[in-house]
């Protein structure tokens, strides 16, 4: 199976190891693994890669009305690492229920602690 994150690589050679618990090497791999976790319905991975200071107490992968979110694609615009901090700018597309596609553009911030990268927060535009 091709990885949902859009690299064109097989899942087992892309986000699969991060979902199995290995530490992703950088913010870009962490962000791609998080996108794939949304696609595949893996809330435990999302929580494990979310910094404890900003991780929500409850994580629901459906919209507030209980409709299924279908992820349609990911485009990485840029990524930067400076020491133990990093940023990834991306556009993700999704559809809620049978509705129109939605475009989400975010600049995400990551921090490395204990050898692991964590999503801290992001700015939507």
From TrEMBL:
InterPro entries: NTF2-like_dom_sf (IPR032710), SEC_C_motif (IPR004027), YchJ-like (IPR023006), YchJ-like_M (IPR048469). Residues 27-122 form the YchJ-like middle NTF2-like domain. Gene3D superfamilies: 3.10.450.50. Transmembrane segments: none annotated. SUPFAM superfamilies: NTF2-like. Belongs to the UPF0225 family. This is UPF0225 protein CR938_10950.
